[in-house]
Every structure is written in structure tokens, then in C-alpha cells.
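Q: How would the C-alpha cells look for this protein?
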Amino acid sequence: RLSIRLNRWCGFDSVPHVAIFGDDDIEFMKLMKKVQNLTLNTQDKCYLLARCLRHTAVLRGDVAECGVYKGGTLYILASLLKNSNKSLHVFDTFAGIPESSGLDTAQVRDFSDTSVESVKKLLAPFASVDFHAGNIPETFKGIGPDKIFCFVHIDVDNYNATYHCCEFFYK
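A: Here is the predicted structure in C-alpha cell form.
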């Protein structure tokens, strides 16, 4: 099965196989069908993201996604966390790429065809979703120094924002 191979590739050989979805991954396919037009990530990346969250969700701490675009992968994460006591923190400008460092492939204003309102509407069925709209690293100022994260998905397409995410979450 693909999930077993992905687990081994990610170094989860010592973790017992836990089915995140049904035997035929029907639940994952339902999620992908719902979000396929809301993400630029491939089905394989979304599946791997879901598997990684499943393995880290047993750790203490909340979950964050930086760079949510239209909320496709965010919806997958929220779906997997719906029966947990974890908060899902959402960081995005919701206005596209704010600046370019010269090291970026994305251009200023790329990914601007979204809004915080549309993503909030998509995530309305889920509790414990905290939106932090604005530029990174300014949006991190509202997070206390004692906050712990067990899983962070960084997909910001910008060198400076990626640097600040790594500095904030992995210090």
C-alpha cells in the first residue's frame, strides 16, 4: 500500500501502522474531492501531509499552517483534528505574496485571488481555528512564548517568510 511505503520513506518504520483513513482511503479521497480546486498541492503531497499530521497529533501542542491560499490543505488538517483538543493556527496575508527578496520564484501579489472571509467560511464547520491575518513575522506577535506546536505546515512561497517561520517555530 502507498501509505505503508510513505511511512517508511518518512522514517516511520518504528511506528505501528495506524490507518488514518479506511482501508481503501475512501475518507481521504472524499476530502481531496472537496478541496481539489482549493489547493495547488498534489494529491500525493496532501496525503503525505495528512499522514504526517496523524503521526504527530499524539504529541502535545497545537497545529499551524503558514500560507493557506484558498484553504485546501487547511481543510484537510482541520478535518483530521476535529475530534481533538488541539487548536489550528492559520497564518496568511490573504492578499498574496507581499514582497519579493529576489530569491523567490513567486511574484508579488501571486496567490491574491483569495480572502480571509472565504477561508473562514470553508473552515466554519470546525471549532478551534485561530486566524492570524497579516504579514509574517508580525502575525507571530500574538502568539505567547509558551505556545507549543506539534505540527507546522509551511507553504509560504517566499524566502523571507519561510526564514521567519523557521526562526519562530523551530527555535
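Residues 12-20 have pLDDT under 50 and may be disordered.

The radius of gyration is 16 Å.

Upvote if useful.
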